[in-house]
Amino acid sequence: MNVRKVILWSKTLSSEALMLSAALVAVALLVSCGDDDCPACPKPEEEVEPDYHVLYSYAFVSETDTRRLVHEYSLKTGALVRMHHYNDVFPFNDAVFSEDGSLTYYTRMFGDFDDESKFKCTWITNTRTGDTLALSYGNGGESVELSTDGEFLLVSRSSRLTLFSLPDLRELYVDSLTVGGEMGNAVFHPLSNKFYFHRGDYNGIQVATYGSEGVTSITAYRTFNLEGDVINPVWESVSPDGKYLILDAGRRLGTAYFQVRDTDSLAVIFEAQYEGWRLHLDHAWHTDGVRVFMPYLGGFDFPGIGGIDVYDITTKVLQPYLTADEVKLDDEFLGPGSISFTPEGDKMVIMDGKGALASGGSILVLDMATRLVTRRIDMPYYAYPSALALIPIDWEKEKEK
After folding, report:
1. Is 106 in contact with 123 (CB distance < 8 Å)?
2. Which long-range CB contacts under 8 A does 2-9 form with residues at least 24 apart?
């Protein structure tokens, strides 16, 4: 704006117009000053780093101390926010959250004790207050999965698989095994009323359709590698767009397979073969919806070789993302057990089991841009790490409410 022309023009106006034009000049000067140090110019608001919390569960390894603990840490500061004690029961094996983070869905399972209500259960709490909202005894596991619409819950990886309706945890379907291993992890299709799982007594994938009253049908498919050999599913997940079923499977003689299948036909689209010790322990989909990250741990026979692989569904490439050689943890080595991502997708949160032995655990925060560990939170006790889950609530914003 030409300020000089505004001033000259104002001389021909009435006093009221003159006052108005003066105000316009002031506005023009403020808008056009362009001086960052100008006291009249508004200061840009400083970006505040989100403060997400992470739940970390593990059990003491002690003959005299049977307490089980769940810690809640701040990823922003690394500080312990609160600690939950469970006496004479085992901690949760897995936890997921509602889309807004307000509800937490837990499951825990251990052994085949006579009193299943003590060791196997699934429950729902208010994330902010910790209040229990629903509880189901006898239906626990090591994996919990929430449907996209938030109306159903799957609990698996124990001697039984349970489909619940929400919010009251009403049982809709139960499948159990007495011999032949455990029910494998169960996963929902994100866009249709189907879920996928595998049984310990069957080398194949089960596809179930369900509704508000329970499971309406189950179809079983034998799983083979591209050479025609039967392989045993170990872990599976479905891509966020619902098109691909990701499958990790094992076979005798220590060979493992990574497969990408069409979710409708279950036809194999991509397959890779790798050593059995590299079998993936988890599938964690990044917030971009196209990359799945999978941790592995060499175990007792191959210590010190833990790492993370990544598969991109757009490029159809499976490759190493992080190896133990790239992460220096003093005298220890990388032993990832499970992975979570911040909602922005800029940080990966890793449950590090410190290798194959029960020598404690750590929470590692990895910057996705640099692949460098920016924060490490060590557990203060000698313990078996059990589960990790990132709470998708920005606690900095919560303070403002």
Report:
1. yes
2. 3/28, 3/29, 3/32
Residue-wise pLDDT tens digits, 182-235: 889 999 999 999 999 999 888 899 999 999 999 999 999 999 999 999 999 999
HSE, CB side, 13 Å, CA atoms: give it for residue 283: 26
Residue 269, judged by CB atoms within 10 A of its CB (0-12, 13-18, 19+), counts as middle
Answer for the pair 376, 350: CB distance below 8 angstroms, yes or no: no
Closest CA to 70 of 34, 95, 45, 102: 95
pTM of the model: 0.83
113 in Cβ contact with 119 (< 8 Å): yes
C-alpha dist (Å) from residue 230 to 10, 237, 249, 263, 352: 89, 20, 10, 19, 33
Rounded to the nearest 5°, which phi and psi values hold at 400? -80, -15
Task: Tell me the two tokens of residue 231.
Answer: 């392989």
**16-31 burial code (b ≥16 CB/10 A, e <16):** eeeeebeeeeeeeeee
Amino acid found at 129: T
Answer for the pair 197, 183: CB distance below 8 angstroms, yes or no: yes
Sequence letter at residue 149: D
The Cα 365–Cα 385 span in angstroms is: 16
Residue 171's nearest CA partner among 126, 129, 209, 138 is: 138
Q: Is 174 exposed, middle or buried (0-12, 13-18, 19+ CB in 10 A)?
A: middle
Look-up of token digits 């009323």: 193
Note the pLDDT tens digit of each residue in 345-355. Answer: 999 999 887 54
Q: How confident is the model at residue 1 (pLDDT cuts 50, 70, 90)?
A: very low
Both tokens of residue 316? Answer: 């159809």
Closest CA to 90 of 72, 106, 70, 110: 110
